[in-house]
Amino acid sequence: MLEADRHENIEILSYSEVTSVEGYIGNFRVKVKRKPRFVNENKCTGCGSCTEVCPVYVPNYFDENLSARKCIDIAFAQAVPAISDIERASCIECFACVDACDTEAIDFSQQEEILELEVGTIIVATGWDLYQGDDYGYGTYENVITQIQLERILAPNGPTFGHLKRPSDGKRPTKILFINCVGSRDLKTNEYCSVVCCNLSVKNSKLIMSEYPDSEILVSYIDMRCAGKMYEEYYRRARDAGILFIKGLVGKIEEDPLTKNLKVQLEPVGSDSIVEMEFHIVILSSASLPSMGTNEIASVMNIEKTPDGYLKEVHARLDPINTKVPGIYLAGSCQGQKSIDLAVSQAKGAASTANIPMKNEKYTMELIRAVPLDERCAKCYKCIEACPYTAISINENGLIQVDIISCRGCGICESLCPSKAIELAHYKDNQYVAYIDELLPIEE
Amino acid sequence: MAGTIRAQYPTSLRTVLVPCTGRVGVDLVMRAFGRGADGVMIVG
Fold first, then answer.
1. For residue A142, what pLDDT is reported?
2. To bridge A105 with a disulfide, which of A44, A303, A444, B44 should be the other Cys (CB 3.0-4.6 Å)?
3. pLDDT digits (tens, 9 = 90+) for A273-318
4. Last residue of some domain: A231, A255, A289?
5. Domain membership of residue B28 as a residue range
């Protein structure tokens, strides 16, 4: 990230939102909404003296709300750019930070700003979000946490500085249960497999086991899907380390009100009995979801989504980078959940794909395009409403004109025009009439 | 579609290639019926 930030050709606009995309490959006009940080980005040095004096504590979203942060703070330790921002909803406006700031960077009058950019190609990499349903008492029982919360607990800069402690009493849990496929591979929630969680369970259970060899770790799963280079070997090492993997899902979890331990009913596949066990902490491998803004970005960029909610590629196997809009490409989990290695491959692929038309300064397109026939047009403008690519507009004479680069040659306008005033080149109505007549000859 | 999944289909079936199912309007469907087709399937 830091390297990208320092690169002369890369500009990072963090804390921003794309609100509109117009134009076509080579000539996109993009509007970006810059949300106010209430800190001048050019003046802030990221020294942190404002954070020191701020009296307001808010939940730390980067630590999955397991710790507290100040109301004015840098988003997280490695954030790029390292600039503070103020959470205005919680701010009490004591202005202690204004006095503490040596560079006079804090500006409570900052407003939303709209930035207009002209770009040639776009790569969408909006990532994913975590499923947070109330399965297995998550949100009610303190010691039921998600894998991402565990990631923060095990992180050296996390809420417990890397020491495994459970949320209810801060003690180290020794009996640990991982539950896989929470909120995925289930017709009630998400049908798809979230891909990464099996390996995440293996990784985190192995990490805990190597740090605390006296732990008793159990992973309950539907299927262990450790496909990919070196992952099966990794899974075997975990089993060799003494981690127990049991096929079978957890039926019920109940919290002991005194100890806050969790009584778990587990039904192992192949046995006809239900096993009852007690654990100190339960970790849910929750499903991944398309990130929160996926619907908005799909409608802004006019790209489609697959039934699972992720952004749609041209072909899931043969063309996973291009979208149906020329010049807009996908990278990473916005196209479907994937492991880091695949996300890196796709990102590199998307970067090269985006660079080809930019370097060539040429784009080859098909000639199947809508052609308006002005003398027939009754100006009902039904075609403008119907066009899924917003390629049709009204010219100065009130007649319609087609932007042949945005037009994708679907022909909806032609089939819908009541006065036959627009036709698709190479797929005209009279061609089809002749085609049908020849296929269905009337016998005399 | 029937071809790619190696399915059998009747020899009395005639296919018309279109760039997109949106291209098929009522007039073309009616034309096919007018020429004696028993049914029209719009498949995308």
1. 93
2. A44
3. 899 999 999 999 999 999 999 999 999 998 999 999 999 999 999 9
4. A289
5. 9-44
Q: Which residues of B touch A440 (CB under 8 A)?
A: 14, 32, 35-37
pLDDT for A129 equals 95
Integer-rounded Cα radius of gyration of chain A: 28
Please give the residue range of the domain that contains residue A251.
129-289
Report the DSSP pairing between strands A250-255 and A392-394: unpaired
* A415 and A279 together in one domain: no
- Is there a contact between B23 and A429 if contact means CB atoms under 8 Å apart? no
Largest CA-CA distance found in chain B, in angstroms, rounded: 31
Confirm whether A230 is domain-assigned. yes
CATH number of the CATH domain containing A428: 3.30.70.20
Domain total of chain B? 1
Contact A124, A329 (CB under 8 A): yes
Among B12, B17, B35, B38, the strongest candidate for a mutation testing the A interface, having the largest count of A CBs within 10 A, is B35
Using CA of residue A78, residue A79, residue A84, residue A89, what is the dihedral sign? negative
The residue among A256, A273, A289 that closes a domain is: A289
Beta-strand relationship, A392-394 and A400-402: antiparallel
Whether A84 and A44 have beta carbons less than 8 Å apart is answered as yes
Is there a domain that residue A43 lies in? no
Check residue A444 and give its pLDDT: 63
**DSSP per-residue string spanning A395-424:** -TTS-EEE-TTT-----HHHHH-TT--EEE
3-state secondary structure of A244: strand
| pLDDT value of position A343 | 96
Report the relative pairing of strands A128-130 and A288-290 from DSSP bridges: antiparallel
A366, A415, A438: which to substitute to probe chain B, counting the most B Cβ within 10 Å?
A415
For residue A38, give every residue at least 6 positions away whose Cβ sits within 8 Å of its Cβ, in sequence order, or none. A85, A86, A88, A106, A107, A108, A110
Contact B22 A412 (CB under 8 A): yes
Tell me how far CA of residue A256 lies from CA of A100, A143, A284, in angstroms: 48, 11, 18
Cβ count near A174 (within 10 Å): 15
Contact A106, A50 (CB under 8 A): yes
Do the domain assignments include residue B34? yes
